[in-house]
Amino acid sequence: MRQVIIDTDPGTDDSLAILLALSQPDVEVLGLTTVQGNQSLEQINANATSLVNYLSLDVPIYSGSPHQSQNPVIAKSQRQAYHGDRGMGSLEIPPREELLAEESAVDFIIRAVKTNPKKVDILTLGPLTNLARCLEKEPDLVNELGQVYSMGGGIHKGKLTPVTEFNYGYDAQAAQSVYQQIGTQIPITMCGLDATYQAVYTPEIVQAIEDHFPKISELFHALFDDQIKTYQERESLPGCIIHDVMAFMVYYDPDFVEAVPLTAMTIVTDSNLVQGLCVADLEGRFNQVTNARVVMRVNPDRYFDRLMEAFMHLETHLP
Ligand code: BDR
Ligand code: CA
């Protein structure tokens, strides 16, 4: 059974990714670690506990430490337009504080990885703050990690600005140190905006969810109805993009991935305007050490087929 830690900042798209991951029979989620990003850490923690509680599970949640972004663009970005006031659209599920462990996110990640060297994968759905702090505390952890999958960045696409993405823009220093320290040993599989924008949740997809999965359908509408409007209005798309769910699927069942080149990537940290910008050496011009496998092309039909299969397990787990 594959073991994974999900590092996350729920977040509408994080929420669905977490529920999906928690309900798959062949993945063991060892814990959720939380990170400030889409909301304050306090709200993120409450959201995470409510999601685990929703499935009546006891998966522990380990809190990160508060971290305000140093990126001046973040302060001006409008998170609530995409995630709602509390980060989960209009979904309201009671939190369950007892699920919050005393151990910190960083200590838990270090402990879990050391307990089972090279077997524990990390899936990051938020800023890379926690992983960077793990490396500060325990630089050798790099030799014991399993695979790292990360939603963030974009090579030819931005969203926070036309060229930067939220997770890597929120804590660009962390992203850069994770790619330089971990990626050069075990390339990080990056599922960024290049990939996620290839799977639009069109009215046909939403209809298919309604037809086959009544419980998920209710959840989906609560999480994403407002967001669908936002994507239509701001980006002229026929539906929303659910970034973190694709990142989970890249980890879980990646047969829909068609191009994932190995490349050297640098994340810009020293700019006010474009902190988090991903510069990938896709053509190998600079002879740098490779550190990333970037999901560049997916087959959207196969993606949605695989997702619907994963949804079957979630549907049976929902109350
Ligand atoms: C990423 O930013 C967050 O707002 C989402 O949850 C996702 O992880 C997409 O850019
Ligand atoms: Ca997220």
From TrEMBL:
The keyword Hydrolase applies. Keywords: Glycosidase, Hydrolase. One of its GO terms (cellular component) is cytosol. One of its GO terms (biological process) is purine nucleoside catabolic process. Residues 4-305 form the Inosine/uridine-preferring nucleoside hydrolase domain. InterPro entries: Inosine/uridine_hydrolase_dom, IUNH, Ribo_hydro-like. Signal peptide: none annotated. One of its GO terms (molecular function) is purine nucleosidase activity. It holds the Pfam family IU_nuc_hydro. This is Nucleoside hydrolase. The lineage of its organism: Bacteria, Bacillati, Bacillota, Bacilli, Lactobacillales.
